[in-house]
Write a structure and sequence with these properties.
The protein has 353 residues and is mostly beta strands. The chain has helices spanning 5-23, 43-46, 73-79, 85-89, 102-114; strands spanning 50-58, 123-128, 134-141, 146-155, 158-167, 176-183, 188-196, 205-213, 216-225, 234-251, 254-275, 280-297, 322-335, 340-342, 350-352. The radius of gyration is 29 Å and the shape is globular. The protein starts with a helix and ends with a strand.
Length: 353
Amino acid sequence: MTPGPGRRARAGAFVAPLLLIASGALLPPALGQETVDPSPPPVSDVYPIIASIRIEREDVFDLTHREDRHFPYTLANRLHVVTREAVIRRELLFTEGEPADPRVLYETERNLRRLGFIHPNCRVESRPRDDGRVDIVVHTRDSWTTRPEFSLRREGNRTTGRAGLHEGNLAGRGKNFEFTFKRDLDRTSDGLLYSDPRLLGTRWSLDASHFSRSDGLLYGFDLERPFFSLLTKAAGGVGGTHFSQVTTLRVDGHDAPGFRQVHTEALLHYGRALAAGYERAQRLDLSLSLKDDRFEVEPGEPPLAAVKPVGGADLIALPVDRRFRILGVEYLDQRVGFEKVNYLDRFDRYQDI
């Protein structure tokens, strides 16, 4: 009978002290020999304690500069909603009463720079106090996140194009919203995309989309809790996509009869940090992917077998249904080292390389 986990744990707990005694690790030191405590000092003895955290937010354009006190910069600031303080605070990896580890402060700064609605020149500043503690000041400036889109193109006797509106910081809450309308040679579609990097104020993120198309539907979602820090122990998520569309082949420059493709895909993954730290990161990720494709004759289209063979090939027929079940394993081992630079691309903005 195979021993259970409890028996293996008890056996390990019994054998380990014997091995340590045999190696001399548990023997008392010789008389007069100095005993050295190998444990590192408490973190609070190395770094000062955070007394307070203040958030200083700025609008897109700094109107204290004379060159920015003109139209359209003033109008842009009036139309723009400054990112709410709570949105900035939820990105912090530290809080009052904790040690002001500069590695944690710098990682918070990097995370803020990754947000599309925060200007890269954000910074986290530590200010010493007379009592030995420090005050942390987080400086942020917003980026312009409202982007309209419009394009037209003439291809032969067909007009294609797209129009839409994207807002990357909806009402200053850090959420993404996009509406788009698109017409191409195959189909016409319109739809919505929504993204929330901190769903309900948690570390979970949500991406969802829904498109209504002239030949079917397309929708998907992705719910994920990522490795938001180098010290994060676990991550995972679930997502899926579904669409139905009419696919048309071209044979000798002419449209062949179309068929309907129904695609469904789902993904489940879980990641675990084998080693988490600011010098090295080791992670293992397990994933399960399910992909199904079903092909059907589209009503009103002639059968594909009626198409003449091309180049000696067999008659074109309806594709065979496909089903995939994929189990994935990914291992990551990397050394961690970042450097903050400015004017790397001839722009006055910080980047982490």
